[in-house]
Specification:
The structure is a single chain. The chain is α+β, with helices and mostly antiparallel strands. The C terminus is likely disordered. The chain has one domain. It starts with a strand and ends in a 13-residue tail after the last strand. Helices cover 27% and strands 30% of the residues. The chain contains one helix and five strands.
């Protein structure tokens, strides 16, 4: 049975709630499915040069917090341009 998971963003000043969420079989699948979106968010926040730590708060459909993951864990290191 599919469950709904929500990925809120905590930017150190406020928590931006995910009202849509994603459906997945379990927490691991939800995190894997959301990984690319989370990576994009991490890159956008890095470009915005926000001071302070940002993290993703993962909630289940009851509102229970399952994990709080620093966005840095999902960002990819910058690559050197190839010449």
């Amino acid at each position: 049975m599919l469950q709904r998971f929500y990925f809120d963003v905590d930017n150190g000043r406020e928590i931006v709630r995910d009202d849509e969420g994603v459906e997945a079989e379990d927490f691991e699948q939800a995190l894997a499915d959301a990984r690319s979106v989370i990576s994009e968010m991490a890159a956008e926040l890095a470009v915005a040069n926000l001071s302070g730590p940002c993290s993703i708060i993962v909630r289940d459909e009851t509102g229970l917090t399952l994990a709080q993951v620093p966005l840095g864990l999902f960002s990819t290191p910058p690559q050197e341009p190839k010449i």
